Amino acid sequence: MAPSNTSRLSALRTYVSTIFNVSDTISDSSHSQNIDLSKLAGCSDNAYLPSIGYVYDPLPALPLHIQRGPFSLPSGATAKSPFLLDNSVELHPLAAGLPYRSSLYHVYASKFYEQNLSEAVTLLKLLASDTSARDIELNHGVTLSQLAKKALQRGQEHHMALAAHYMFPCANRQRIKMISALMIILFVFDGASRVCFDRYVPLIRPLDKFEAIPNEELKAFRDNLLPCLDGNLSPDPQPNSFQSHMNEILQCIELEDLAGGDGGKEMLHGLRDAFHHVRPARVFQSVDEYLHFRRINVGAAFMIAAAKFSVESSVCVNDARFQRYLSLIADHGILANDLASYDKELQALENGGGIMINIVDVLKNVTSLRATDDAKRVAWSLQLQVEEDMMVQIKSLQSQGLSNEDWWFLEAVGLAAVGNVMFCMTTSRYGGEAARIKSQ
Questions:
Q1: pLDDT at position 89 over 70
Q2: What is the spatial distance between Cα 197 and Cα 394, in angstroms, rounded to a whole number?
Q3: What is the pLDDT confidence band of residue 14, given thresholds at 50, 70 and 90?
Q4: At 313, phi and psi to the nearest 5?
Q5: Global pTM value
Q6: Fewest CB atoms less than 10 Å from the CB: which of 11, 290, 420, 421?
Q7: 111 or 156, which is more confident?
Q8: What pLDDT was estimated at residue 225?
Q9: Please, which contacts does 390-394 make with residues 24 or more away whose CB atoms are closer than 8 Å?
Q10: Please, are residues 404 and 75 in contact by the beta-carbon 8 Å criterion?
């Protein structure tokens, strides 16, 4: 039986004191001096890639003792995924000198970044001008429409649009646009819900992101959005521009599912589920308790469904053979995201806004660790353990008689996990201006 996260944590605590006080560390300065983005991909592939303007390392002084890999995920497929061959570019972040924080070295990017970016910008512009969003005050006078405008001003080429680019490289030109649209919704409304909670939600109540906001402040927008996540078109006989675009997205997802696979509907359901788990009922008492909550809160079901959608798969995500692996994928996304976002969340908390739901904070609470850097290193060690367990699970599945379709799905899910690491490193979302590459 695979070890639980609690047993992993117990094992880590037995040697944590011996690995933190070491002189052999990787400093952030070494990365900034050695970055050569020309080595990120082959010469013929660079045309598909956006420029990298930010490089963020959440572990700038990592002990060399806490290293593993790099490894490539094994596969039992008899042929390479045609979706990966046709739609992606292989990346080499370590060769480029980037602080790529994963032992799994199976990194790709989409060939269709321009289509991805265009969809992200279109959706944000429509949301910024949507009348039902313009008057929704979230906190401190900030409206939902203003939140979308702020995202546009920030520049999407280094922000949210990068997520789909790195996480779903198997998606074709049309499907990457659908994934990008839903990811923008996930990002923007996650931010909106956090702002709303600062204003409205008591700490002891686990409330839904939209459906529990008082005074019907989000009612108009909620009534338009949530039915979409059930795959229903807006009932408004004269839909506004945002509603019309969402209707178009739903119709395109339905058509894509008819053309191949059934992941589109599952993407919508996964996104809706994420909107129902925002704040826990109480302080987490263990790492396992936290991860159980976050697997839904972080949108893991959406990520897995989007990976399935990207390879036009009809694989059953509830297949018992895949459950352990998919659970590890979810935990990996949590750990990678939390390591990248901790400093940003802490700054927001200290400035009187935002909420802290982060594995680093949990580790400080449930262990004797008090230093943030120590808790980050334990979180990193947990991520490495999860990656090792992913390798073990994939190897065990090689004797299960899986089809190529099964293997291409499992690979797409793994690519989403490592793509998330790439996104966290290169987005301005977490490191901010301090992470901007000086030559940009």
A1: yes
A2: 40
A3: very low
A4: -95, 150
A5: 0.85
A6: 11
A7: 111
A8: 62
A9: 390/73, 390/104, 390/325, 390/328, 390/329, 390/332, 390/414, 390/417, 391/71, 391/73, 391/74, 391/104, 392/2, 393/2, 393/324, 393/325, 393/328, 394/73, 394/74, 394/75, 394/325
A10: no
